[in-house]
């Protein structure tokens, strides 16, 4: 199934870096901008904040990669 993989860099109070990954089906998010917009909203959700231990978005750019197993 084709999907978007969105990676958002994170940084903790102690300056440890990481990344939080979100995946969205291509049939629901047909263009990159829609998937990135949803990832930004989900990044701020209570579950996402808890999952990353309170780390915040890093200064690096968000990446969005299209995956299609049929290609």
The strand count comes to 4
Question: Which structural class best describes the helix and strand composition?
Answer: alpha+beta
Query: What form results from the Cα inertia axes?
Result: elongated
Radius of gyration, rounded?
A: 13 Å
Percentage of residues in strands: 35-45%
Low-pLDDT residue spans: none
Distance between the termini: 11 Å
Written as H for each helix and E for each strand, in order along the chain, the element string is EEHHEE
- What level of helicity do the residues show? 25-40%
What does the largest sheet look like?
Answer: 4 strands, antiparallel
> Can you count the helices?
2
**What is the arithmetic mean of pLDDT?**
93
Question: How would you characterize the overall build of this protein?
Answer:
Helices cover 25% and strands 35% of the residues. With 71 residues, it is α+β, with helices and mostly antiparallel strands. Strands 1, 2, 3 and 4 form a 4-stranded antiparallel β-sheet that branches. The chain is elongated, with a radius of gyration of 13 Å. The mean pLDDT is 93.
């Amino acid at each position: 199934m084709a999907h978007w993989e969105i990676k958002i860099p994170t940084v903790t109070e102690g300056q440890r870096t990481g990344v939080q990954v979100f995946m969205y089906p291509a049939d629901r998010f047909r263009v990159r901008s829609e998937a990135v917009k949803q990832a930004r909203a989900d990044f701020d959700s209570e579950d996402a904040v808890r999952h990353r231990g309170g780390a915040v978005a890093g200064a690096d750019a968000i990446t969005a990669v299209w995956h299609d197993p049929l290609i």
